[in-house]
Amino acid sequence: MKTIENPDLNTLTFASDGTLSSLGEETEYYRSSKYYKVDSVRFVGQRVGFIAGNTYPAFYQGLTLKADSLTLSPCPDHVCDLVFIKGR
């Protein structure tokens, strides 16, 4: 597991209007996505779809919310999960 030393510089912002923004080297993968949507899938749980634009389909990742933390699971075997702490 890799710990990111300065979490303030690695931020994903999910706005209530469905827009998404990212900041920091560790969130570079999400920069092409401008929008997101959350879906519940039977037997799988919640997942978040990242949307780059009108011409590309959303790419989905597992999503877990627990207290003030958000875990994104881009890999099925959870070896590359990303954990974000809610900023106040």
UniProtKB/TrEMBL annotation:
Domain of life: Bacteria
The protein's name: Uncharacterized protein
Species annotation: Salmonirosea aquatica
